[in-house]
Amino acid sequence: MNRNDVTEFVIDCLTDARNADKQAALHQWLLESPGNHTMYTELQRLWEAARTLPPLPFNIISGWDELVQQTSIISPQQQLSPHK
């Protein structure tokens, strides 16, 4: 399998963890090579990290407005005043 096929295969197994046939194929693939296990671990970490991403489609305007609002709240002690 090329890298794209492997990625699709692993993602398919991660999204359908209750499918015994897919999990058996994954288990067999993992046993074939230590490199397969390394690749699976990397893809699994990416898959888990992707859960924290915002849902698509991302609204750039509202995201920007939210960021500006969150970063523009500055207490008086944090404000800089010009020196004369």
How much of the residues is beta strand, in percent? under 5%
> Care to count the β-strands?
0
Outline: elongated
Class by alpha and beta content: mainly alpha
Proportion of helical residues: 55-70%
Encode the helix/strand succession as letters. Answer: HHHH
Q: Which runs of at least 5 residues are low in confidence (pLDDT < 50)?
A: none
Mean pLDDT: 84
Q: From the alpha carbons, calculate the radius of gyration and give it in angstroms.
A: 23 Å
Q: How many DSSP helices? A: 4
Q: Report on the biggest sheet.
A: none
Cα distance, first to last residue? Answer: 70 Å
Which properties best describe this structure?
FecR N-terminal domain-containing protein, 84 residues, mainly alpha
In short:
The chain is mostly helical and 84 residues long. It has a domain at 1-51. It has four helices and no strands.
Structure description:
By secondary structure, the protein is mainly α. The chain has a domain at 1-51. Helices cover 67% and strands 0% of the residues. The chain contains four helices and no strands. It has helices spanning 3-15, 20-32, 34-50, 60-72. Helix 1 packs across helix 3 and helix 2 packs across helix 3 (34-50). The protein starts with a helix and ends in a 12-residue tail after the last helix. The model has no long low-confidence stretch (mean pLDDT 84). This is FecR N-terminal domain-containing protein. It comes from Chitinophaga rhizophila.
